[in-house]
Every structure is written in C-alpha cells, then in structure tokens.
Amino acid sequence: MSKITAKTASKRFDTAPDLYGIFFEDISHAGDGGMYPEMLRNRSFEDSLIPEECTTDDNGKTFVSPTGWVDEFNNGEGMNEWVRDNHIVPTEIPAWYSENCTISLNTEDTLNAVRKTALQVEFMENGSLKNIGYAGVPQVDGSEYTFMCFAKSDAPVTLKLSVTDGEKTYSAAEFTINSVEYAQYSVTMKAEGTTGNGAFVIKADAGSKFMLGFSSLMPVDTYNGHGLRKDLVEKLKNMHPGFMRFPGGCIVEGFTMETAMFFRKTIGPVWERPSFWLLWHYRSTNGLGFHEYLQLCEDLGAEALYVCNCGMTCQGRCPYFFNDEEIDDMLQDTFDALEYALGDSTTKWGAYRAKMGHEAPFNLKYLEIGNENWGPEYNRRFLYFKERILAKYPDLIILANTNDEELHPDIVDDHYYNMPEFYAENIGIYDNYDRSKPDIFVGEFSVNQTYEGQIRGAVAEAMFMVGFERNQDKVKLCSYAPLFEHVHYHSWYPNLIIYDNYRSHVIPSYYAFSIFGKNRGDRVVEMQEETDTIYRALHGYPFVSGKDGTVFKNAVLNGASATPVKNVHGKFEEVGEGYVLRLDQEEYEKEHRFYRMIDMVTAVATKEEDINLNKGTFEVEVEYKKDVPTGIGVLCAPKPLSFYDRMLPVPTDPWKMFNLEPIRLIIRDGVASVERGFMRPPILASDIPVNIEEGFHKFACTYDEQKAIFSVDGAVVAEVVLPHYQSMCSVVTATDDEVIIKIVNFSEEEDDVTITLDVDVEDAYSVDRFYGPADAENTIDNPGVVADETVELTGAAKEFVYKAPGMSVNAVKVKIKK
Q1: Contact by Cβ (8 Å): 726, 701
Q2: pLDDT digits (tens, 9 = 90+) for 84-107
C-alpha cells in the first residue's frame, strides 16, 4: 500500500506551458509515404542514384560515404530487411515495373535543374507500367485521389490510369499528353472499394512514347486541406502537444554536404525541391518541407522548434566538418529560414512565404543549433551561430546539444535510450540539478531495450516523466523519439505511431503522453509519498579492471579457482602465476574515435554459466600501481541490444563498454570509488581514502541481490546498495478548481494508494488511465489491445484510497469544493 500526501496550499512553481511536445524526424518513412501521404514510391525516379560523392564496390548493395560511413542501398530499395520482408522483386528503377514496355532513366532531358533524371517510356502491344507504392498503393472506398505529373511527348499520347489489386480495379482515369515540352497534368480518381495492396498502373497504345519528369498520387482529403495524412495528424492533435521539434534528428546533419539539411532545399513547389538520400536508408523528395512543418505547428496549436545544421555532418557516422565558407553558407540558410517563418511579406523570404499561401508570419519560438553534436568543433560553431542569430532575433529561445559552460544556451537538449529499469531508477535525475544552469529539454527518450513498444516500457517512461513534472522549474520541454513508423519500412523501433498505407495505431507510450499532456494543472504543489522498493534483477561475471600492464592472479569465485573467460576492451596474456592485461591495438584503432579506452577488463569465472550469477564472493590478487586505476567488479553482462544496434550492416558486439553496467570498485591514486558501468558511469560511492602501497593486494567483493561489499586486504572499503527503484511514483498539480494526482504503478500488482489532501473535494472524481500485462502491445492488425480509458468513480475525500491497477499510468482528477 502506497501513500501520497498532497499540500495544495504550498505551491512549488508554475507548470511549464510547453512541457509535452512531439519530435518529428523523417525516419522509417515518416515523411514520403507517411505523414506526407504520397502513394507512389520513387515518384521522382531518382531512388537508384548513388548519393553524390559516395561510391559502391558491390554493385549497389551498399555505398560508402567520402568519410567512410557504410549504408545499405540495394539499388535504392534501402535496407536488406525491407527487400526481404516486402518480397521486393528486383527492378532497375525502384518501385516501377514494366511489362511489354521499355523504361529507362534519362539524365539529360529532365524537368528542371534540380531533377536529376526523368523516366523515358515506350509502350508495345498490351504494355503496362506500374508502381507498387510503399508496400502497396491504398484505396479507401469513396475516397478521391489526385494523380499529377509533368510529361511530354512528340505526338499526343493518351494514358489510361488505374489502381488495381489482382483482377479488381478500384479507380481509373485517363488523360492525354499533348505537349512537346514538359507540361503539368492532373486527374482525379475515385475509389470503389478498399485495399492496402493495390498497384498504380499506366497503359497506352502500342508505339506510345513519352517522358515523365515527375509524378505523384495523393489523397484529396488531407488534414485541414494542408496536404498531410488525416489519421496521423489527428493522433498528434490528441497528444495536446505544446511544441514540435523538426526536421530532426540525425537527418539535419546528414552524412555529406549534399545530404545535410538546408532550408532552401525544402520549400517551393514539390517538383522544384531536390531529393536526397537520408541516412535512414531511403531517398526523400522533401514534399514535407519547412513550410509544411510550420503549417502543421499552427494546425496543432504547437510552438515551432526548428533544428538547424551548425556546419557538420553526423558525428556518429564518420563526420565531415564544414570549412569556414561552408559554415557561413549554412548560417545564411538558417537566417533565410528564420526570415521565411518570422519576416513580414516585405522581406525576401517573407514574400516567398506569402506566395506559398501564408501571408502572416508563422510563430517560431525555439531554435536548436545542431543535433547530438559535441566537442570543440561543435562549441565553436554553436557560439558563432548563437551570437549572430541573437543579434537579429533576440527573442528566440536558443537550445544547445551539450551543457558545456562556455555555451550559455537558454535550454540544453538531453537524450536517453535505455531499458525500462533505467527510467524507473532515474525519476530524480533532475532533482539536484544546478538551478543556475540552463533549462532542460529531454528531446529524445524511449525504452529501446526490452519491452520495446509494450506496457512495461510505457509505464517506465511515465515514471521518468513524473520526474520532469516534479522539476518543471528547470525541465521545460520533453518529447518521445522516434514519432512515426511505416510498418513495412522501419529503420528503428519502437516508434510512437505506426501505420501501413491506410491504417494506423499507437504503442502504449502514446497514452502516457496523451494522459499527461491533457492533465497539466497550473502549478506543481508540495507532496510526499511512501511506497515499496524493487531491486533490479542483475547477473553477470566478476572481473578485473585496469590498464595495459595490470597483473592479477589467484582469482577465486565462491571458493573455486577462476580463470579468464572474456575480454572487454583489451586482451589478457598468461604471465608467471597469473595474467596481464594488454592493449589490443587493432581494437583501439577501430574504436577510439567514438569511445576512449578508459579501461581494459577481463571477466573471470569457473565456467561460462557463471554469467548468470547474481550473488556470491569474488576474490583476486591484483597488482596496484599508483598512477594506474585498478579494481574489480561484479555483475558484468551485456544488456540486450537495441533494434538499431541489431539491424546495423556490421553487427554490434554486445560486449561493448557502452552496453555494460556492472558494479565495480576502482582505486585511483589511493582514492576509491564504486561506479556502475564504464561510460560516464553513475557514482555509487566516492572519495574513499584507501591506505594502499604499490604491489599485489587482495581485492574482494561479497554481493547479493541488494548490496555489494568491497574490501582490500580484508578491510571493507565500501558497501553500496545495488540498483533499485520505487514501485510507485507520483506528482500533484492543481488549479483553482481541481487537484490532479498523477500515479504511475510500476508493480505487477494492484496498489491501494492512500491519497491525503489538505482541501475538501467532491465525492465524484474521474481517472484517465491505461494498464495491462507487462508485455501487452498493439499491432497493425490488433490495434486495440492496449488503450486508454476514462473512468468515473466516487469516494473522493480529504483522505481516500485509489486502487491503481498493476502496470498502470493514472491521472486522478478531483474537484475542489467551493
């Protein structure tokens, strides 16, 4: 039984008005074929073109960027998994197939300067040309669709269009190409019947010859008539977003100059916007561009948060750092984007916006300089951009990717991807944050290791969100990532909203955002809670940690002699009675760009099955040298890999340092600390003086499911509590009329939560909530397994009990008596 005591008369601070938002990045076909509901894949005929400056040495199966990053290409079809799972039949021009018809790419006679190729077509007897769309061309009974193209021919040619599935025709139209120069043609097709597996078919008489410079098939009915898919935008609207971050994400950076995101490439008529290959494995025609993003923010009532490239490509994909001239070009592009959004119609770009149909300026409140960038190269560029932009736009709220002291942004963007337990353990991650530092935007977070897209993952994320709510004086914005996924083209998982060509559903995490987003309150109030503690289920090998040359011997695990079984960042060699840790130079050369060689680690055991140990005693003699961080640890085993790591062209080794979070004692210059993991590890105990001389010493650890006791030469150095979390957490907000108690129950069992208030309330109250088994999830064919609900209850009082279901997220709303 948990307890919550709320003091509504004791205000802590106002709620952050824009706290819950959305983050859009074109990943997993979130743009073309997704929220931008283009139905023809490869509508510009450019998908098979290798990105500029890139090369292939395997006939287009992959390509390599100038800096060495490798991507799956498959002649423009994208990931190997997409080709396999979608049963894509090879074709020279992706998504386009011909029968008794010849098609080829013409790179000389294109529609305009930005189009790199056109489709040259010649029909024979009984010829047909078809496009298979994004795993099918959808038709919904009674809906209308507009086919548009630019075409030309030397003689009039009548094209007969249809969408078919097998023998059934769902819609049809025809038109005649009657111009020797490229001209625009448009016809409407009305569906009779519903299918998600259609194909768009073009037929013409034998001998017909023509060129297509650009093509498109779009639904007539879009959200507010602004060109975006209705069901997907409606789902965004129901999240009550305070802001939208766009256009990325890693696509802002790209992997070459050509693929970096420039504002000027994403505006104007869609056929005049250049396409480019996204680092999420497909080409985008940028139909969803800067104007459409701003219009969507306006339609959603959300503040715009624009992310600009600061003069570098993705640092996680073999980066290229722009030279000074290129940086200035990118800065000017950012100025142009800001003028397009904010300038009046007398300015160059404001006039262009008005020409595109929006006379008044848009709202653009936030600007983030860079995405997931860091280090001296980033800091220099950030400061260069910030100083010049604020000189012209002093009211913009500026966001940075890192919290380096020299940057002085308004807000810092933090990103988290981890297991459910991480989020439950870190509810208080911002409780002790220095209030003199910049505000916080948790711009990307999700459970992406175990229970991805399932109830347990969603409830864990809600635990983390309670922490944001408790710290709204500093945490001003947050958003889940990623947002969208076409179910046939996922390049990441999980994603908040999933769809095929005509259906969509949400994962449970969506409901956490929806419930929290619509139940805000005006102010956060004082409260206390009491609840149970749950310890994380850990297991793994014991190990020795040191540097090149560290020697250890006489390892004993639970009374039995133990020997090395696994190396992590380094290798071991037998020496005398023991072993010595050695630097693996080949491994170091490969990995040092991304991860410092902090330590070398050798796991020891009596047998391989010892990786499953969760308690015991480990002893080993280790040679200590004053200037060498030396120690031991326990519970070393890889976490499950994320979907992204599992799908990389070169498989990820799960034993990488970033994927390990053991408990370890390290002694540096006679001072000990107990740390969890290796990469910027949480410190469990620190600044412990140890009386130790150079030479061999007996290091030991006795541990169980709740604690670990480390000793050196029989003297206890540190006793630490192992990772744990609350079974329930809560936050209370209020208005003058209502008290809102958000309760997250991370236990499998129902929790009778006693709620004590300092104000009289009405008997009747309501609860918005969702709950279910830990592994419950929705699918495209079963979208309603997990859903939210609003229940009306009675019995509220100054003290009452609410029964929080196991694995649940709840917003309890009680009315204040007047």
Answers
A1: no
A2: 999 999 999 999 999 999 999 999
